[in-house]
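As a next step, we paired sequence with structure tokens, yielding the entry below.
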Amino acid sequence: MTSLSSICVYCGSSEGGDPVYAAAAAALGRAMGSAGIGLVYGGGSIGLMGIVARSVMAAGGHVTGIIPQFLREREVMLETAHDLVVTSDMHERKRTMFERADAFVALPGGIGTLEELVEIMTWAQLGQHKKPVLIANINGFWDPLVVLLRHMSDEGFIRNGFEVSYLVADRVEDIVPKLQAAATAPTTRQKPAAPASIPIADL
């Protein structure tokens, strides 16, 4: 059993076209800070990244920003974060984020957010970690990804024994409770119960 002291949040460096995404990022940050859960994230001060980080800090939570040197200006590093780690490249950034987090959440974002989410799911599929991964499906943003994963399974590219278990939350207020429950569950490999987790083979 593992306690949940930090969550890595993947999200966009823009706010997106619908105000619901920014509102969700702010609400998640408040929930994490109020629960005493620290944030590990990409270190930027703009977009959803900046919103969730400032919201965690405003609620009394600890923020660790991890950013590669070449993105310090492009993503405008959040200088007020409690811990700032500048890495040499993206690979080191993602590895450091993984090592410092107990769980992972993907808020809406662009191709970088998608890449981070898929990579951490792949690591879990290959048995490299058992940390919970949650898709924050705000406003149905990630529905196309779920459809694609179902298609991969239907076409035989996700085989029995290699299912990917992940959590889905359509409401931001469900994110922290779902991750807390998953983080404290026994670590023996069991098929998660729906709807808390959706094995891809069952989609």
